[in-house]
Amino acid sequence: MSAPQTIEVRVATVVDEAEDIRSFELIDPAGGLLPPFTAGAHIDVHLTNKVVRQYSLCNDPSERHRYVIGVLHDPQGRGGSRAIHEMKVGDAVRISAPRNHFELSSEGSSLLIAGGIGITPILSMAKCLSGSGRPFSMHYATRTRSRTAFMKQIGSSRYAPSVSHYWSEESDGEKLDLVQLLQSPAADAHLYVCGPRGFMDAVIRTAKDKGWPDACIHHEFFTGEVVALESDETFVVQLASSGKTIRISPEKTVVEALAEAGIELPTSCEQGICGICVTGVIRGEPDHRDMFLTPEEQARNDKFLPCCSRSKSSVLVLDL
């Protein structure tokens, strides 16, 4: 497998959008057009050779002259957000072309729900839907006004009447009532949610309880967690092309063990979110621990994410 190609862009503007949140406008250094994208898409930002992070594009997909990302500085994170927040106007950075695992449906009405920094892909969706005249409502939950990114931009937009704000720690703030919001879904309605894991779990769980079909619930996780279990055991990965076998101990991921054996797989998030390392499975039963593959794709057991997933069978034959 070859590593995904990258393009160089330049930081055109840096804006403090809210407490600990900055937006970065990225443009082509020569002033040309950037690769097209659709609402819900994200890019990989290559901060160093080893540090790559995914950020959703939050501007209107009709804008080919720029990409805009919004980044929350997380002092408890792995260093990516800190490095991004240190970028200045004029800096060059390499990024991937946009990819989208959070596409808008082409039909029906849309219910957009964002928690915190999860507003970024939702904001792009709102701009797209507003521009095309399609019906939608957007519900944006944060702790306080000072932590509400893009509030001025949203307030002055043409779709502002379709947006409701919720502030859980403001004395005059309304709290998001998921039971009320998600009850009695329309037959053609689609739900899109992005935000912290606990917030998203609550939205998805409530939607299912209220009768939303799985096919109409769309979500995107920002962070994942590589889960290690006490029951994890050693298994063997076999390469279909050569027959070579590599032992995967409980302390190592498949990606790490393959790298030690001289086999480098393209990776980015290393948390089972981005899908860059998806690898074909020829024989064996993966133990799926990712958030990229759909339940249907996981059930087919013909591919898995070696950055986080393991094996239920003693041998896993990979299409490598």
List its salient traits.
single chain, alpha/beta, Elongation Factor Tu (Ef-tu), domain 3, Rossmann fold, Ubiquitin-like (UB roll), 3 domains, six-stranded antiparallel beta sheet, five-stranded parallel beta sheet, 7 helices, 18 strands
Task: Give me the secondary-structure topology.
Layout: E1 7-18, E2 21-27, E3 42-46, E4 52-56, E5 67-72, H1 80-85, E6 92-95, E7 110-115, H2 119-132, E8 136-142, H3 151-155, E9 163-167, H4 178-182, E10 190-194, H5 197-209, E11 217-220, E12 235-239, E13 245-248, H6 254-260, E14 279-283, E15 286-287, H7 295-300, E16 303-304, E17 310-311, E18 315-318
Parallel strand pairs: 7-8, 7-10, 8-9, 10-11, 12-18
Antiparallel strand pairs: 1-2, 1-6, 2-5, 3-4, 3-6, 12-13, 14-16, 14-18, 15-17
Question: Could you characterize what this model shows?
Answer:
The radius of gyration is 21 Å and the shape is globular. It has seven helices and 18 strands. The chain has a six-stranded antiparallel sheet. Strands 9-8-7-10-11 form a five-stranded parallel sheet, with helices on both faces. Strands 13-12-18-14-16 form a five-stranded mixed sheet. The N and C termini lie close together (8 Å). With 320 residues, the chain is an alpha/beta fold. It has helices at residues 80-85, 119-132, 151-155, 178-182, 197-209, 254-260, 295-300; strands spanning 7-18, 21-27, 42-46, 52-56, 67-72, 92-95, 110-115, 136-142, 163-167, 190-194, 217-220, 235-239, 245-248, 279-283, 286-287, 303-304, 310-311, 315-318. The mean pLDDT is 90.
